[in-house]
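[scheduler] slot 2 assigned
[scheduler] job type: sequence-to-structure, two independent chains
[scheduler] chain ordering preserved from manifest
[runner] begin chain α
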Amino acid sequence: MSQLEKKSSMIEIKDIDNRSIVGSIEHDFELGSERGGVVDIDRSEAGSSFMAYLNVVCVVVGTGILGLPAALKQGGWIGLLILFLSWFMSVYTSVLLIRCLYANGKTRLTTYTEIAILAFGKVGGYITFFFNAWLLLGGPVLYLVLSGANMNQLCAGTVAEIGHIQWTIICACSVAIPFILVKNMKDVAWISALGVVVIFIVVFVVLIMSAMEKPKMAPSHHDAVIWDMFPVALATIAFSFGGNVTYPHVEAAMKKPQDWTKVATLGLSTCAALYFIVAVSGYLVYGSDVASPVYNSLPTGVGQTIAIVVITINVLVTVPIYATSFSLDIENMFDITVERFGRVKEFIIRAIVRILTMVVITVIACTVPHFSTLMSLIGAFGNCTLVFIFPVVFYLKITGIRNKPIYELVWCFLIFLLGLVGLIFGTMEAIKELINDYGA
């Protein structure tokens, strides 16, 4: 056994005892090579950690930022505390999730569903796949709903005002092209870069416009806490940190997987900073009258138009990221690979799967046109589960409970409790609101 192999074996033992699975990966390695006894995936064509950071920021920050002022309206200023906790908890669970990919001690797992199978067998895999699909398809549905409404709003009073459903279909066709052509998360990194740039513009516009409006407006009404609407506010905030479903594929596209903890921490911290700016400025200025999306509260004019245009760009470039992650899960499940089918046949099968995926997403987007309520429902049912509950449960099941310090178990319990409250009560309230929306 070589010196490197000896070092790897010692690291494997340390991983199991100290749970530092991700942090212990010190070298790049390709398919068939081993690190700590774990055979990794092929990273010969992987991208940089910075590109992974852009993927995280783009997929997380997205439309969640638009609903945060309204989340404070629903739950009161205490929502800032939940936002702060969600930030720390989402960083922690993102690290746990990637640790679980290496936890079987043999090969790196590929998907969230495979982690669930390792923890709870096929039943756990089926349940997780359902929630995973709910979020990876629900996110694009929400984004297409928003982009269709935005385009119709921008074209108001012109011949291009053809209706939000028609614009939703047009937007879906436009994002279908890159979605079909790109193959993995590395290939969508340039899309993420564009998404990050435009979201910074949105934050800047909301901050400046709300600051300009503050002196002109009458004092707004604010609440410290609104208990009956607190769960649905929690669900909206949970939606804002939804990205776990894409993390296995983002990490798989990294040349240096040992940088994942830094990437996740920096990426989610960037999102949190932007969230606090928009949430505080929007709710402080407009109070209980703030709209979701928040730019609808801005005065009509150039500022609002810029915000609508750039957020539309952001959501459209985010759709391929979510949809690609879902397709990679499907392609992995059915072993749709070049090695099995050859380049041409593999591309044709992959294209058919992705076209059908976009058709399903578009049909749902055209029939559920309520942005705010839809975001709360997706956040409660999907994100509360996949961001807060499952990573903790899977991690403890796979690595054990008795070998954890009491403070870590308490922290895991708090994360689980937050997710459970958002899941149960947030889903109930979101469904009630959705029913009311359709009855209105």
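[runner] end chain α
[runner] begin chain β
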Amino acid sequence: MTAARTGSVTPDLTIGVVGPHDLVERVMLMGHGPTPVPSRLVAAAYRDEQEAADKVVRLGSGVDVCLFASPVPYDFARKAGVLTMPATYVPLNGAALQGALLRASLDERFDPARVSIDVLGRAEVEEAYSEISLGTEQVHLREEAAGPGTLAAFHERLWRRGATTVAMTCVHATAERMEMAGVPTIRVRPTGAAIRSSLQTAALLGAHHRLEESQLVVVLVDVPTLRETPRRVTPRYWATS
């Protein structure tokens, strides 16, 4: 007679995708590809980057890891102190900025050498420009993350003064405000390769975190050998008749 062995099936890893509607949809569509561990995606889209922290709170313990569509919502959530799970974001430097510069160069109204750029660091911008042999003397940067209104005011002020020909923003809500104000705007969007790489990273972070939580602590106790007590000899009784 043999006893049947039963095993439990580990549920798929859950990745919460936080970002504006269009980018979240793009990540969700690309998330059907292979990942290091079986994963499912949960969408948490917003209209304004400042809603990112609230979206993370709503996801709560239902996700193993958060993937933000850009560094901007990640920064808002981090500063709000709501990241109780591993988190990462899709980077916007390098190829993402070069893609925005290419779109600007294809429009005769814009001069890629006279633009305003938010969020990205100076080193990242200078590297991207050097690779296409453009100078950054007339490129205006605002590296510090801020609310959409503050960033929109930065771009609009430069454009109305004639210092720039187009604004390049990494913030969805800022782009919407500037478009309503009539300021020429190009959004810096993540590349497909960056999204795929970030999905892989998120899956690995979530799997590692889940493994850490499920580890068992094994304690080995070395018990000293106890002194053997002398065995009592049981007397034997003989009966004679």
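[runner] end chain β
[qc] chain β: Residues 1-9, 236-241 have pLDDT under 50 and may be disordered.
[scheduler] slot 2 released
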